[in-house]
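Appendix C reproduces, verbatim, an entry submitted by the partner laboratory led by Prof. M.T., so that reviewers can inspect both the input and the predicted structure.
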Amino acid sequence: MNKKISEKDKKDWENFISKNEKLENKDKNFSKEKNIKIRLLDLHGYSLDDANIKVKQFIEESFAFGSEKLIIVTGKGIHSQNDKDPYTSQKLGILKYSVPDFLKNNLSLSGFIKEIAPARIEDGGEGAFYVYLRKKKWQ
């Protein structure tokens, strides 16, 4: 490495200092808000109505943050008490089936959701699903 600084480099440095220019912060692209691309919501213990309200809020917030993928854990429904009520469908009372159905039929959320898909085993398998969000259009 050359220990001498060239005249050109000295002039460039003096030029830079005299203009009070700021260097671009290379780390700004890694802010917390930009890193929240995948978010998780666990609905264990929620009633159906509370779960639907929570999911709606979660999707709206996630869309506002610019998240792309959501993991929603509903559980498999093995602890559901619906089998004790003969007037309740055992299948439709379980969050596993009802929450994705709620999302597919909710018109106010349709502008946010691109796709709903089953989760891979490492993300909850049968007890979870993915919600892929549309990209936020910046105004």
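The two ends are 49 Å apart (CA to CA). Additional entries are available on request from the coordinating office.
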